[in-house]
Design brief:
This protein has 421 residues and is α/β, with parallel strands linked by helices. The protein has three domains: 220 residues, HUPs (Rossmann fold), CATH 3.40.50; 77 residues, Tyrosyl-Transfer RNA Synthetase; 77 residues, RNA-binding S4 domain (Structural Genomics Hypothetical 15.5 Kd Protein In mrcA-pckA Intergenic Region, Chain A, Roll). 43% of the residues lie in helices and 14% in strands. It is built from 18 helices and 15 strands. The strands form four sheets. A six-stranded mixed β-sheet has the order 1-6-5-2-3-4, sandwiched between helices. The radius of gyration is 24 Å and the shape is globular. The model has no long low-confidence stretch (mean pLDDT 88). Its EC number is 6.1.1.1.
Length: 421
């Protein structure tokens, strides 16, 4: 079931777009899927578990796949795992996920919903996106009935050969029955969406290949239905390093978790070798324009990186946020200013009056620990309100507040505004 090439390439707009932009990795039957998509508007879904109140850049590839699916005249479904988030997907994880409360899952659902509203057009039309929650059908299942009706269609032998499960077992790491059932739940999701919404295609990252194939096989066994699965490669740099985190942590897609400026700056710092690929994956620029940009070299490639940052920030946070982030960066790096548009961190009640600089750096996310903060100060890389700092025991206080904030900088690219209590 690996991706197979077609002599003339895909005929459907969706698969041709994915092929040209580098999304295609694996497909259960590329030729049949292409024919189905050419026959009229199709319906596809991608699932997202509610393990945090925002998605991160690692989710951008499946989100962009759904966006292109809609832009090429089809109907996308964003499935939120209100039920499966309570189990935890074991795919390529070394440990079990912590249990989430119902309250936390609902909070996460609200935050993640905001992401999709920026990328997809929702409504009641034939190609309008819809959002569903698998808790609506999984939450009311009778366990004995489910085992009797669904269990016989799954082979434990087959499930044990799944790459993600096999790796856990080979490392002799615990794999609970709870997690083992995740594959069954995901396959059942596919069945429900096929039955209720005519959804015949499941999209996902390559780490979901085993789960997706199980859903395709389950659909054939239980209803004789032909379903399709298609995966995209996981997001990595040209060196093979997994993407998704910056020096200060995960690169979240919601502005309340990561400011648009920090998001913009993350993409501005893209490695030269990745610019063309990321422009194809994460922007809607014409391919000929991308071809022109990706061959730029030396200082000229920086303009391509700014375009990448502008385009993806515009998609994720809106045009105004992209313009402001770009202007903030220009004022910092070209004009030497530290403008007010920088990320702002409100200090906790514990840091009142005079407080250690190292504590403020940890709270602001500029250092992971006090010892790291001291090393940064000792190395001469820390500035307070533009002035270099060398005293590791420095205290901050009211006298450091300028226009209501204290400006902290580490190196040339990391800047935070501290807002005292």
């Amino acid at each position: 079931m690996k991706l197979s090439s077609q002599p003339t390439g895909p005929r459907s707009d969706f698969l041709r777009t994915l092929s040209e932009r580098g999304f295609l990795h694996q497909c259960t039957d590329l030729g049949a899927l292409d024919s189905w998509l050419c026959s009229g508007a199709g319906t596809a879904y991608n699932g997202f578990d509610l393990t945090a109140d925002s998605l991160h850049v690692g989710h951008l590839i499946p989100i962009m796949m759904l966006r292109w699916f809609q832009k090429t005249g089809n109907k996308p479904i964003a499935l939120l795992g209100g039920a499966t988030s309570r189990l935890g997907d074991p795919s390529f994880r070394d440990t079990s996920r912590p249990f989430l409360s119902e309250e936390q899952i609902m909070k996460n659902l609200i935050g993640i919903r905001r992401v999709f509203e920026r990328f997809l057009a929702f409504g009641d039309g034939p190609t309008d996106a819809v959002m569903v929650n698998n808790a609506d059908w999984l939450g009311g299942l009778n366990y004995l009935d489910f085992l009797r009706d669904i269990g016989p269609h799954f082979s434990v032998n087959r499930m044990l050969t799944s790459e993600s499960v096999r790796q856990r077992l080979e490392r002799e790491q615990s794999l609970s029955l709870l997690e083992f059932n995740y594959m069954v739940m995901q396959a059942y999701d596919f069945h429900v969406l096929a039955e209720s919404r005519g959804c015949l295609l499941q999209l996902g990252g390559s780490d979901q290949w085993g789960n997706i194939v199980s859903g395709v096989e389950f659909g054939r066994r239980i209803g004789g239905r032909t379903l399709f699965g298609l995966t995209a490669p996981l997001l990595t740099t040209s060196s093979g390093a997994k993407m998704g985190k910056s020096v200060s942590g995960a690169v979240w897609l919601n502005a309340d978790r990561l400011s648009p400026y920090e998001f913009w700056q993350f993409w501005r710092n893209t490695g030269d070798a990745d610019v063309g690929r990321f422009l194809r994956l994460f922007t809607e620029l014409p391919l000929d324009e991308i071809a022109r940009l990706e061959v730029l070299r030396d200082s000229e490639i920086n303009e391509a990186k700014k375009i990448l940052a502008d385009q993806i920030t515009r998609l994720c946070h809106g045009a105004d946020a992209a313009v402001q982030a770009s202007e903030t960066s220009r004022r910092i790096f070209e004009a030497g200013e530290v403008p007010a548009g920088l990320p702002t961190v409100r200090l906790p009640d514990s840091l009142r009056g005079d407080f250690p600089l190292v504590d403020a750096m940890v709270v602001a996310g500029l250092a992971k620990s006090k010892s790291e903060a001291r090393r940064l100060i000792g190395g001469g890389g820390v500035r307070v309100n533009g002035g270099s700092v060398s005293d590791e025991a420095m205290q901050l206080g009211d006298f450091d507040v300028q226009d209501g904030v204290i400006r902290l900088s580490v190196g040339k690219k990391r800047h935070i505004l501290l807002q005292p209590v």
